[in-house]
Amino acid sequence: MPFAFSPKKDNARQCDIAVVGAGVQSLTLVLHLLKKRPKWRQRIAIFDPHGQWLARWHHQFAAQDIPHLRS
Prior knowledge:
Number of domains: 1
Radius of gyration: 14 Å
Number of helices: 2
Helix content: 25-40%
Order of helices and strands: EEHEH
């Protein structure tokens, strides 16, 4: 899985597919793409100001004292 990283000058690299944001929808999109085209792993870059997957999700759940998602 490509690592979600902050858009900083020192992280510059070329990519064919840029995903902005590392939230639930982005994670779903990237997993779907890689399931269909595993060789695309090095072609995808994910940009998020938090530098990790689901950072905002985890922060919002913690703020609401929700230990896990319930369906």
